[in-house]
Amino acid sequence: MKHNYHAFGFNIESPWPLPLSEVSSDITTADCSIDLSEINHSRGFNFEAFGLRLKIDSENIFLLVDGIAHYHCQPYRIDIHPLTKCEDDIAAFLLYAALPYWLLLRGKWLVRGCALSWNEKESILLLSPPGGGSSTLAGYALRQGAKLVSDHFCVVTEREEGVLMVEPGIRHLRLWKAAADQLQIDHHLLRPIRPCLQQFFFKTENIFSNRPLPISGVISIDTMNKKEDVSVKKLTGVHKMDNLDLRHYHLFLFKKLGYQKIYQRLLMKLANQVSLYHLTRWVGQQPLDLVWKELNSIFLEYIPQEV
Question: What percentage of the chain has pLDDT greater than the value 70?
Fold first, then answer.
């Protein structure tokens, strides 16, 4: 059975259910068709580590995950050769590795983090390095009335009159068990992403994924090892550029594929378009209401008066 989705600005067909915006009718022409297939690849990988091997050229990306699957990304398709019968494992690497690689192959700029909207007219990005807590903070924001546009990574595109937009993407929050407990989410509402990890999908009803939204604000999150108070600082000028430059998703691939000039132009445009706030918090769990208190005045810019 094929599942038909519209996400990241593309029509996608997949043999596995994915946490994307599903369309009820068949897709006449898929921008990305995901299929099971034998995969032939030569040696000479660009990257090898932790059971992963990656090979890149201008029209192909090969991702080999030991014991899971081989993935071949091409401009209009992703072929998968499974090495396990566990479909959750195969789908997880498809969603969080192969699909982002395919988007990069199509020239899309990806940033690491979440996108939220309060008014369905503009969006705010919560960006952080892995483990920085952007999804956890997004989960708290959803309880305050925000709607989820995309989780884990966001596709930034240039639309009308040169405005940068975020495309609707992953519709479920990806949370570690400790984060789900901190958000007081009923465990019955969680679905394991992979059997061997204490990491879960949380399907929220607070979803906005009908169309791309202009990006008006960015909250960039960093962690520190020493236990100090949460701090928030507004960045301006070159500091905005430097901070946004750290929030890319697989930038080395984007540059390797020849999109360096596109990246520099979009980076400068985003820095000029948004207000950017830098949130610093200590590593590990801390009361979300305290973090929210520091951000509340910023979020009020994006919350309609009636909320």
Answer: 90
